[in-house]
Amino acid sequence: MDNAKTMVIFEHPLNEKMRIWLRLEFLIKQLLHNKNFEANNALFFFHLLDELLEIIERNDIRSDLLKNIEEQKQKLSIWLDVPGVDKPLLDDLLIKLNTFIHELNFNPKLGQDLKEDRFISSIRKRITIPGGCCSFDLPFFHLWLQQPQTIREEQIDQWLQSLSTLFQTISLCMQLIRQSSHFEQLSCTNHFYQNSQDDISLLRIKVPLDKKLYPQVSGNNNRYAIRFLPLEPIMNNNDQEMLVEFELACC
């Protein structure tokens, strides 16, 4: 496969925990990218914040993170006695993981401060109503949006700081999960590939951008199937039968 080609990475979860973590990671990145908003596009930020808090409220994120951190610590500790390993890097990772354990135990209810914040709660109650955040519905929100941007950004930073442990822990856990497997070059015919492997939670699939194909995945943490579908309608059967080259990492 030509490594110079532009590749698109698709990630697919194979269990419910990974599905939730990918959604959290997506929302966190969107929040951080859109935190410096103006009055005319402020609702996008609060929609993202509402979705993030909704996921936290409905799932035991903290327990799953603590369990994964302990598993990662055990895996990393095994490498400490391996000759030639980057011991300072491992020590640094173990220190970070222990810090996250301490912070998660110290903060048993993630996002609780934001759930109880009257300003945020009032917006969340109306944000799912079409047009429900007009100035006559939420006059206090309209007034807040007229404040200098520096004041608003200071308030937003305080809100996000209360979620910093969640943000950092999710980021490091996902980094370690992704780094647990390397990409392997593969190919398939008829746009279909299937395989089995024990105890995997995430598929990472690289597809050349110029092929205009995207993967549709089904399966679980022991067996999976990938069907490559065209972005545009197939005009002849030869395209359907062509050899599809891709890269796959099972994490």
Automatic annotation (TrEMBL):
Location within or outside the cell: Cytoplasm
Recorded superkingdom: Bacteria
Keywords associated with the record: Cell cycle, Cell division, Cytoplasm, Septation
Primary residence: cytoplasm
Annotated InterPro entries: ZapD, ZapD_C, ZapD_sf
GO BP annotations listed: cell division
Alphabetized SUPFAM superfamilies for the sequence: YacF-like (SSF160950)
Transmembrane segments: none
Pfam families: ZapD
Function: Cell division factor that enhances FtsZ-ring assembly. Directly interacts with FtsZ and promotes bundling of FtsZ protofilaments, with a reduction in FtsZ GTPase activity.
Recorded family membership: Belongs to the ZapD family.
Subunit and partners: Interacts with FtsZ.
Protein name (record): Cell division protein ZapD
Organism of derivation: Frischella japonica
Gene: zapD
